Amino acid sequence: MDLVRGSTDEEIISDALGRAPDIQLGADHGRWRLCRWRQFVGSYTLPALPDPMFVVHIAGKPNVRTWERDGWSETSSLPGCATIVPSGHPTGWLVDGELDVVTLSVASTDLQRAPALDQFRRMRFAFSDPLGVALTRQVLGELYAPQTKERDVYVGALVDALKAHMMRGPVSASSADIPTAAFSSYRIHAIMNAILERPEASHHLEELAAQAGITPTHFCRVFKKATGVSPHQYVMRARLDRAQQMLEQSDTSMATIADALGFTSQSHFTRAFRQFAGETPSDFRRRRQETLQ
In what order do the strands lie in the sheet with 124-128? Predict the structure, then answer.
């Protein structure tokens, strides 16, 4: 698996945003390209892309909108949502605050074999996709682990699975499987965003369940169905995502980061980070600094 160079979709987005993606990967056979883009604020216009793109909203502010015929959409994308951008379709985007998304471009020729071809003929904005989000997060978790031949094979398999999931199209589910109405996905998204905004807070299970208006046991089931992980795992992942940003963007000490993000001790932070990223916080910071030099 090699770094993408000269990928048309990604060049167009880079020109519009004024910077390259944080991560850029492509399959050896050229059938997919995956990128991570972070920290963009403002409004952007993207020309039509030559290949369709699957966009997964990983983290950031819960207020990303797309341009419709007469203005910005009433619907906004939240962390945990996915969007399909068809080829040949110019798009406009309004980003209010920090944004973290992963894009997966696939070769247009592959759509001839897609059973749900109609979904790629129009824009599908901000729909719930727990499996797509879970696969994307797993890919990112592996990409920040030390690089080995086995890891590259595993990442390729994960992205191939994400691509297959995208091309299969939405799978129908019974209404009992999807949170709606009374507390609905709105409350789940509100809780997710509260965690992302303040990952250092305690976020006790009982408090989160009370915010959703359901029992802790039921909340755990609904939350995992919506996000692919348990509430505790989501809180820990939010803290570790923020820790990676602090390690990359500052010289803050490990003890200070651990305390600022709600870990019980520096050793607790180090153990959790190693399990999450496959290396210690110090090694992660050193490797990222060497990459930027």
Answer: 23-26, 32-38, 99-106, 53-60, 81-85, 124-128
Q: What is the pLDDT of residues 211-235, one digit of tens each?
A: 887 888 888 988 887 777 899 999 9
- Distance (Å) of CA 82 to CA 54, 85, 153, 268, 276: 7, 10, 25, 33, 23
Cross-strand pairs, 94: 43, 65
**Count of CB atoms situated within 10 Å of the CB of 103:** 22
Domain housing 225: 178-292
Task: Please report, as a single letter, which amino acid is at residue 162.
Answer: L
pLDDT in tens, 241-277: 889 888 988 889 999 999 999 999 999 999 999 998 8
Q: What CATH number is associated with residue 58?
A: 2.60.120.10
- Token look-up 């471009």 returns 105
Asked if residue 106 and residue 35 are part of one domain, the reply reads yes
CA-wise closest residue to 54 among 31, 27, 82, 89:
82
pTM of the model: 0.58
